[in-house]
Amino acid sequence: MANPYARLFEVPGTRAFTLGNLVARLPMGMFSVSAVIMIAGGYGSYALAGAVTATGLAATAVVAPYTARLVDRHGQARIAVPATALAALGSLTLALCVRLEAPAWTLFAAYALTATTPNTGGMSRARWQHLYKGDPDRLHTANSFEQAADELCFMLGPVVAALLCTSLFPEAGTLTGAVLLLTGVLLFAAQRSTEPPPHRRTPTTRSPIGAPGMLPLLTVFLATGAVFGSMEVVTVAYADERGQASAAGLVLALQAAGSCAAGLLYGALKPAGPANRRFLYCLAAMTALMTLPLLAASTGALLALAGALLLAGMATAPTMVTGMTLVQARTPEGRTNEGMTLAVTGLLGGIACGSAGGGWTVERFGAGAGYLVPVAAAALALLLFSIAAACARNTRRRRRRNQPHVPYVTVTVPAEAASKPSP
Q1: How far is CA 86 from CA 63, 81, 112, 192, 325, in A?
Q2: Where are the domains of the chain?
Q3: What separation, in Å, do the N-terminal and C-terminal C-alpha atoms of the chain show?
Q4: pLDDT tens for the 423 residues of the chain, in order
Q5: How many angstroms separate the CA atoms of 330 and 342, rounded?
Q6: For residues 307-332, b (16+ Cβ closer than 10 Å) or e, as one string?
Q7: Pairwise CA distance, residues 144 & 390, whole Å
């Protein structure tokens, strides 16, 4: 049997756009960590650093869907390059403001400019969908590969950022991230042969958020994002409680590694059954596996927690792969980037809520109890999708019942009439 990932790159141009996208995607895991280290070091305030990064996250949640809509309407190369240039300018301005110790409000303004960063992962997935629209098996493999790439970049990004900021100078992580982002997008946009054609908006073009089943799915992504956000904050607090704060990054990297490995394995398998059912199973598995860190935390051993997070992460990628498959299926034609960016926006909102909820729980009940938050968030995602699926089934049944019954009428034609030649 041929390697499904080798078959994925048989189309000319796929390797080149994938390489460019990976270069552009790596900074996504660098910018927040770099900004926190840079601002906290320059201004002596983690509160200010957190507020600035939170502002950037909120601005991205608002701006990203509009950027994606322009990408769908006018083409990836035409929109992504100037949008990335503006975002890179924001990163450079932020670094300059910190270096010059400018007033705090300038940091918020500069970091808000980075909200124009295009959804590079979404653009890559849109290319795969364009190339393999009639091949669900290859599209499944492509989505799995993209999710594994996401996990890899978010696993390596913080490590690279911390290394640059601490070994060179505080602004090194932000500056390097801006250069990598712009370089990667330029390389990605140059591969025009694989770029989906732009779709001009018409009066009949429907918004992705109004597509049937999309809004409930986005609420599931919101709850799923809360799993990720709370897990990160609680794990850092748990390691810090035991005087091993420096090990938090490695422990979280193991969770990403488990997800990356599971995503690649999931992509090599042929999907069985409807995507709705697979997504339900994935959410159930994620809810079950998220109880492992909670149990491991009760032992007080960081090593036990690391193993639990490695196993818990294995449910993440299959869940996200199947969820993105549903988003692609429910997004109207010509609005692929916007649909997937809305899903990412839901994740970002969930990450912010999960971070806040995890921090609140840790402060009041301790880091060990904080692992209840990702369990609750995963269970909420499962419940929301179960309710949405049940409502969709009931709606289909009502429609079938309300359809008018047209009885079959048997008409008997006399033999002499049937044999009579027509004039």
Answers
A1: 13, 9, 11, 22, 31
A2: 14-135+158-197, 208-398
A3: 63
A4: 567 777 878 888 888 888 988 898 888 877 877 887 788 778 877 667 767 877 787 788 788 888 888 888 888 888 889 999 999 999 999 999 988 888 888 988 988 888 888 888 888 888 888 888 878 888 888 888 887 787 778 777 777 777 788 788 888 888 999 999 999 999 998 888 888 887 766 555 567 777 777 888 889 988 998 888 788 778 877 887 787 766 776 787 788 888 888 888 887 777 777 888 889 999 999 999 999 999 998 888 888 988 999 898 888 888 888 888 888 788 877 777 777 788 888 887 787 788 778 878 887 888 888 899 999 999 999 999 899 888 877 776 777 776 665 554 554 545 544 444 444
A5: 12
A6: bbbbbbbbbbbbbbbbbbbbbbbebb
A7: 27
The residues near 112 (Cβ < 8 Å, ≥ 6 apart) are 55, 56, 59, 90
CATH of domain 208-398: 1.20.1250.20
pTM: 0.74
Secondary structure (H, E, C), the chain: CCCHHHHHCCCCCHHHHHHHHHHHHHHHHCHHHHHHHHHHHHHCCHHHHHHHHHHHHHHHHHHHHHHHHHHHHHCHHHHHHHHHHHHHHHHHHHHHHHHCCCCHHHHHHHHHHHHHCCCHHHHHHHHHHHHCCCCHHHHHHHHHHHHHHHHHHHHHHHHHHHHHHHHCCCCHHHHHHHHHHHHHHHHHHCCHHHCCCCCCCCCCCCCHHHCCCHHHHHHHHHHHHHHHHHHHHHHHHHHHHCCCHHHHHHHHHHHHHHHHHHHHHHHHCCCCCCHHHHHHHHHHHHHHHCHHHHHHHCCCCHHHHHHHHHHHHHHHHHHHHHHHHHHHHHCCCCCHHHHHHHHHHHHHHHHHHHHHHHHHHHHHHCHHHHCHHHHHHHHHHHHHHHHHHHHHHHHHHHHHHHCCCCCCCCCCCCHHHHHCCCC
Residue among 122, 108, 96 nearest 28 (CA): 122
